[in-house]
Design goal:
This protein has 508 residues and is an alpha+beta fold. Helices cover 28% and strands 25% of the residues. It folds into 2 domains: 205 residues, Aminopeptidase, CATH 3.40.630; 258 residues, 4-Layer Sandwich (Nitrilase/N-carbamoyl-D-aminoacid amidohydrolase), CATH 3.60.110. It is built from 13 helices and 22 strands. Strands 8, 9, 10, 11, 12, 13, 18, 19 and 22 form a 9-stranded mixed beta sheet that branches. Helix 7 packs parallel to helix 9 and helix 11 packs parallel to helix 12. 41% of the residues are buried.
């Protein structure tokens, strides 16, 4: 058969195809005599919804057909019959303003079965659904082998065994393999379908790209540009010099129309040099006196340069306790705070720093983001909680002195991208600070990580900076790819969690 195939093509159904369609349908439904569509019915379908009527032709002859309408699904979501959904086969239920593509019929000529032509028809339906911005596809699927098990199994038990591949059902197996999921049992769906005992399964496919129509323009971007600042530690005379350098980088990434600018952890550490005569705990607390002014300046720059700025982190005193905190300065003027939850043994011992308690995903004009400071990235529970809150991009400002420390952050960050099906951006500082105690050397290579699947780079790295060199790194990430991965990825880390065995929750 295959060697005789010269051409396979998808075409819109026309009325000229009717006689051949009739013959194909009679052959396809040999167990159901006279089960074919009349010419006036096909004519009505074509007039109502020409895009929804598709034929697949092999060597110019019809091999398969897919017929569909659009319905207002709320009217039919509950129990309905084939007669109900088709308006007693008049198709007056078709509604161009509806929200779901309903499958009226799909059949393949027997001699062409096994060539996966049905999959082509279903793929077209899915593409059509996405293009028309419909919620999804639905139809009543026959279970033609059910009559063999009706005496011992309920329809629900039968479907479960088919799902587990303990029983083979040619129709239901095919639908499940095409990403359709059973929603409910429909009783008395198709009159005369003795093979299914007149039962059917309501099968649904969800369009992950569906956007609810709104009169307001959509402000959430789908392709997000990230600007990472690999900051060079160097001596600065005062705060003005630090912010002058920061503004230079913000101006640069903004010039490339970046949506985010990410600074490293403790990027303002060079200012501790002026307090080198003090003990380390005293010096870090003096540095904290600059934090409010830096946040205010970052907020002004975010508005001026039309960019969301993630301030990395800075020491901050709250209720006489020392925290490692940062701020998300949005381009609309709003400011949100985040904290380092796990301080390193060195931060606790040398500086007397406390772990914070703020953990949440932030809403932005580019979707939901999460921010974890350095050591926090090594605790997978945190990013999983953020993923459950809808995070698409995880930002990790870090500061590491040795390559060992950097490797911990890097590999943990990449793991977070895979296990949470999100993008992860890390930015650190480079260079040396000979005149600042406890901040002598830095090692960094800023990067943007992706999940590892076909739509992403094979090594899971979207972009990477040159190690230990002051520079900016700019990368685009496509949020829609995450939606696709979540539903259709080779592995689905979030969906496949065994919530019957374990769970994770935030206590406060």
């Amino acid at each position: 058969m295959i060697q005789d195939i010269e051409n396979i093509e998808l075409k819109f159904l026309t009325l000229d195809d009717y006689q051949e369609l009739k013959e194909t349908m009679i052959l396809s439904y040999s167990t159901m005599p006279n089960a074919y569509w009349k010419e006036h019915q096909i004519k009505t379908l074509i007039e109502y919804f020409p895009e929804g009527q598709i034929v697949v032709k092999v060597n110019s002859q019809i091999a398969g057909v897919a017929l569909s309408i659009i319905v207002d699904y709320q009217q039919y979501e509950e129990n309905h019959t084939y007669k109900d959904i088709t308006g007693n086969f008049t198709f007056n239920t078709h509604n161009n303003e509806g929200d779901v593509l309903y499958g009226v019929d799909v059949f393949i000529k027997p001699e062409f079965r096994g060539l996966r032509l049905g999959r082509r028809l279903y793929d077209h339906r899915k593409e059509l659904c996405e293009r028309l911005n419909l919620k999804g596809i639905a139809f009543g699927g026959r279970i033609p082998n059910y009559h063999n098990y009706a005496d011992t199994l309920t329809p629900k038990e039968y479907i479960e065994k088919v799902r587990k591949t303990e029983i083979k059902d040619p129709v239901l197996n095919f639908q499940i393999s095409n990403d359709f999921h059973p929603a409910k049992i429909l009783k008395g769906y198709l009159e005369g379908d003795k093979a299914s005992n007149e039962f059917a399964v309501l099968l649904e496919w969800d369009n992950i790209y569906y956007e609810k129509p709104s009169k307001k323009p959509s402000l959430v971007k789908k392709v997000v540009r990230i600007g990472l600042i690999q900051w060079q530690m160097r001596p600065y005379k005062n705060l003005d010099e630090v912010m002058q350098q920061a503004e230079y980088f913000i101006d640069a990434v903004s010039g490339y129309r970046s949506d985010f600018a990410l600074f490293p952890e403790f990027f303002n550490a060079p200012l501790m040099a002026e307090n080198n005569h003090l003990t380390e705990p005293e010096a870090i607390r003096k540095l904290a006196e600059h934090t409010d002014a830096i946040v205010q300046k970052f907020s002004e720059l975010a508005i001026t340069y039309n960019i969301n700025i993630i301030s990395g982190s800075m020491p901050e005193i709250k209720n006489d306790q020392l925290f490692n905190a940062g701020y998300l300065c949005k381009r609309d003027g709003n400011i949100e705070r985040y904290e380092k939850l796990h301080v390193t043994p060195d931060e606790a011992k040398v500086w007397g720093m406390q772990g914070g308690s703020i953990l949440k995903a932030f809403d932005t004009d580019c979707g939901k983001i999460g921010i974890l400071i350095c050591y926090d990235s090594e605790f997978p529970e945190l990013s999983r909680i953020l993923a459950d809150e809808g995070m698409d991009i995880l930002f990790i400002p870090f500061l590491t002195d040795t390559q060992n420390g950097y490797s911990r952050v890097r590999y943990c960050a990449q793991a977070r991208a895979i296990e949470n099906e999100c993008f992860v951006a890390i930015a650190g500082s480079v260079g040396n600070l000979p005149n600042v105690h406890n901040m002598d050397i830095q090692f960094a290579q800023s990067m943007v990580f992706t999940p590892c699947d076909f739509s992403f780079p094979t090594n899971g790295i979207k972009a990477e900076a040159t190690p230990n060199t002051e520079m900016i790194l700019i990368a685009d990430v496509d949020i829609d790819l995450l939606r696709e991965l979540n539903q259709f990825g080779s592995v689905r880390n979030l969906k496949d969690r065994r919530k019957d065995l374990y769970s994770l929750k935030k206590l406060q």
